[in-house]
Amino acid sequence: MVEHKGSTSLFAIFALSLYSLFLFPYTIYRISCGGSEETVVQPYLQGKQKKGGVSRVLRKLFNKGNLVLIALWLLWALLLWYVSITSKDLKPFDPFEILKIEPGATTAEIKKAYRSLSLQYHPDKNPDPRAHAYFAEYITKAYQALTDEVSRGNYEKYGHPDGPQAMDVGVALPTWLFTKDSKVAPLMLLGLVFCGILAPLGVASWYMLRSNRYTGPNGVMQDTMSLYYASKYNVKESQSLVRIPETLVFCMEFLTLPTPGEQGAGLEELRRVVLRNNPDLKDKKAFWVKRHPSVLKAHMLLLAHLDREHDSVPASLKADLNFVLTKTPLLLDEMIKIAVLPRPPLGHGWMTPAVAIVEMMQCVAQALSIS
């Protein structure tokens, strides 16, 4: 007779295995290439002193990503402890291990071990119900399996002193799912199928589709590289420093930067800040009208950084400023690769834009206006 039932211990092992398949690669990613969550370019701190080295190290060590990783490993350790507790029920019946004797022990050694364990687990010596159950189910049967001829024969043939047992097929699902009055079992099964199969497949598909959008060690979008190679604002042979920013901000990273209506007041305030330091932009319609709103926002934030107006940037745009400053060095690195790319017929790169891009890197790093 085959009895189908759930097995909480098997389910714990199954859950730990799935969780490990996620946690181990994620940990390797965090250690090898996760990097720090701090921005690549730090805003210019005028009149402010930098915090001590110990504070910076602690802030870098205990950032949000590392704290999440620590929490995930604590959960893994908890699962491992639970598996070690519940997996005891999965061990096969071994009378030598139960009586704590070596295989091939003599009858005298078997009886001595039985008497020693009886002093600890016999109901007359130990009132604990769990000790009584362990004594009846394990110690007594182990002793019979090694001393009684019938029990020993059953153990040698069937692995248990009571003879052949009903085949127990344990499913790696919690036991309570198989109770007759369980009404949430179907929902739990659907949830397990979704979390264990469909969700991982969806995440893997999303990651593969997303990873195809980026290229190179800097993780720049492939569409950005196309724009830098061949578009109205591409890198040009005679491009000077003053023309570098308009190429820099014309990228998919900034084109796809959300610009919700709630930022309208902040953008107007940012516009006044930019015009205060760059009055020559007031009458340039090509700067204000003919470009995508997200590109215009990124350009104004870049100018605010170069003019050291970080404190004047509205609070609603601070996150966008950090994003622009994070992506700018990576984009400039890709631009200089395009500038120095060997071109026929002589196989030389372009000196003028290469020098201009290097100067732009210096301006961004030191928060200096290109003028």
From TrEMBL:
J domain mapped to chain residues: 94-159
Signal peptide location: none
Pfam entry (one): DnaJ
InterPro entries: DnaJ_domain, J_dom_sf
A Gene Ontology BP annotation from the UniProt entry: post-translational protein targeting to endoplasmic reticulum membrane
Membrane-spanning parts: 6-29, 66-85, 184-209
GO cellular component terms, semicolon-separated: Sec62/Sec63 complex
Superkingdom per UniProt: Eukaryota
Keywords noted in UniProt: Membrane, Transmembrane, Transmembrane helix
Gene Ontology molecular function, alphabetical: protein transmembrane transporter activity; RNA binding
PROSITE patterns associated with the record: DNAJ_2 (PS50076)
Name this protein carries in UniProt: J domain-containing protein
